[in-house]
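S1.2 Input.
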Amino acid sequence: MTNRVSFLVDGFNLYHSVRDAITDHHLSRGKWLNLSRLCQNFLSACGPAAQMQSVHYFSALATHIDQQAPLRHQALISAMESTGVQVVLGQFKKKLIRCKAGCGKSGWGYEEKETDINIDAVMQSTRDKNRRPIHPGEILLVGLLLF
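S1.3 Output.
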């Protein structure tokens, strides 16, 4: 029996995991990750009959950082889509952020929103009317531990 597997990837956490690995291991590059191939390589851990059903990438364009960041991100998204990755975009929202150390200071920042909701919506769409998984294999990648 075939085990169809869907991968749901939190792009924000994946990006920070890869960025940290690049810094920690003094790598010169590595942010251009072939997500489809990475997920394909995980299939063997799902059993010998595992087949890739889909790869969903959830993220948001950081238009508040600089003008180049969303352009680079959009280029990465286009490359992912060309390999069959289904991209679901949320957005960043402005938010008042208070000092966590209790100093009383606050300032405006941005927070990525809707990724969790979008991931849940895709997960729910893979359920039948009795809320059972249509495809038993779903893997949620929220980041990578690279050694």
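S1.4 Remarks. Strands lie at 3-10, 50-59, 86-89, 91-98, 106-113, 137-141.
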